[in-house]
Amino acid sequence: MSNPNFDYYARAKRELDHDHGHEHGHDEHAPLNEHDSGPPSDHEIMSRAMQELLEEKGMITAEQVRRRMELFDEEFPYRGSRVIARAWSDPAFKQRLLADGRAACAEMGIALESERLIAVENTPDVHNIIVCTLCSCYPRALLGMPPTWYKSRNYRSRVVFEPRAVLREFGTALPDHVTVRVHDSNADMRYVVIPMRPEGTEGWSEEQLAAILTRDTLVGATVPRVGA
Amino acid sequence: MAGGAQGRWAFQSSYTPAPGHHFEVGDRVVVKRAYPPGHRRTPYYIRGKQGVIERICGAFPNPEELAYGFSGEPVKTLYRVRFSQKHVWPRYAGPAQDVIEMEIFEHWLEPAPREATPVGGAARA
Q1: Which CATH number is associated with domain B13-111?
Q2: How far apart are the CA of A41 and the nearest CA of chain B, in angstroms?
Q3: Mutate which of A131, A179, A192 to test chain B, going by most B C-beta atoms within 10 A?
Q4: What ipTM was reported for this prediction?
Q5: pTM for the predicted model, two decimal places
């Protein structure tokens, strides 16, 4: 294998196997980012090998992979807020979003690719919250990568059977007359919450509205607040 | 993502038609209490529980086949089913109207027996 990166990963893995049982001296210059210290994991090596094979076959380029990661970090997380701000401002758009989430997003030039989107609406009587108990299904093309807490075993196992306790831990206390509607995102659909538009936002532009539509409000862990 | 994409997607529904589906919205169903090995998208905690069809999502490749490199065909009808929390978790501490909803493929569903458990929640999508 001529690729020097591959050799690096293979060598690092051999060193990891060798190193077992040895005491390591403390390195005061060690990077603070724990993920990037030490040899790569088996999954990193497999992922790297797969990417290199696909590059060698001309199916993808490193630039495409980099661009994709950049989109996830730089663009996708802001899409959801824009879509819901539009729904708050335009009742007809909200109805189209509720009827067919992907088509409504497409109207705004947001292509959700394979994702089927279901928008669920909070009302004075209903609060919605999203989870994926089986893994970490999440509307990534709309909200970016899921937060760590969304992927945690704690959240995934508890929010289905004690959603009100979990919501209180997020600072969201709901009166008993409100129906809590938990959505287990366990198969092909992806979900976004349309929160209730708070008082004091009358006349706001979509941009202003988008600013209070934070990620956690779109998952249903909390509700948007003015001046928060 | 700009201009052209908008035109291409503007009138395309994201929902796949599901010809030949067996259940309708509002039908009472029971999730099969089965524990086959392999990749399943039906959570353990909902097996054997009764609910109501909330909506028909469409027809999708079967994930139980896709997971092993098969085509996933024939496609299966996917439903969203609403369950009463008090029914799913006998010790559920919240009010009686709270609900949990999830997606269940048709081959995991059977018609509920006549004396079906009531499903709370006036919530309607």
Answers
A1: 2.30.30.50
A2: 23
A3: A179
A4: 0.82
A5: 0.81
